Amino acid sequence: MPDHVIAQTEFLNVARAENGVVTVTIERPARKNAMSQAMWRAMTSLFEGLAGDSTIRAVILTGAGSDFCAGADITEFDHVRGSAEKARQYEAENSATFAAIRHCSVPTIAAIRGICFGGGFGMAAACDLRIASTTALFSVPAARLGLAYPVDAMADIVQALGPQLAKYLTFSAARLDAQAALDAGFLLEIVEPGGLDLRATELAATIAANAPLSVKASKASIRATLTGSAADAAVASKLGDETFESADYAEGRLAFREKRRALFQGR
After folding, report:
1. pTM for the whole thing?
2. How many Å apart are CA 262 and CA 264, to the nearest integer?
3. CA 51/CA 214 separation, integer angstroms
4. pLDDT tens digits for 207-253?
């Protein structure tokens, strides 16, 4: 069955498939999907809402047209970032979006084509998995604008790229093509342009077919390992413990004995 739209704001579209996979599409192709201040706020609210929906299994983030996202809409900077106070507020809103994506309880997949610059790169780095078409280009051009990246966003970038390449990109504002990003480990895989949406859907469907509580526990455990936070470790331990008494664990064992595919319900 085709996906059906479950939410829509200006320049953002949210569609859901029957398997619980949600696709969030940035729809501003005439501006290379550049993010306005209003779009940042809407994206934060959107991902915070998705995180609270226990029936969602995975989220794909992508861009309409030929590009993923050119980052923040610089044409509005004189208005929304024209003073130091406004710039700090704008950065806080950027950080809130990255955090909402990063803390989404289910796996997030960035499906990237064309330009993935600045804040677009930040959103991709905040996702769990990243795949791209061969047309993808990556850049972190803050140094050309006299700006700095939020610290939490930089943490995502360092984790996704490694410290040396993160330094190179932020110091030089250079561009990476898809192959270089794959070689660096930023991308899981690259595909031909016509196959990106299908591959993202396949990957999300594979995740969605597995036990949701197990997947969430794994995501939390990996995060705790990366952050070294005692609070994150406690959350991960709790989620892992809950799987032992779940109906899905019983179903998984039964399906194994019966040599059939398990039908997980997320409880």
Report:
1. 0.94
2. 6
3. 16
4. 999 999 999 999 999 999 999 999 999 999 999 999 999 998 898 89
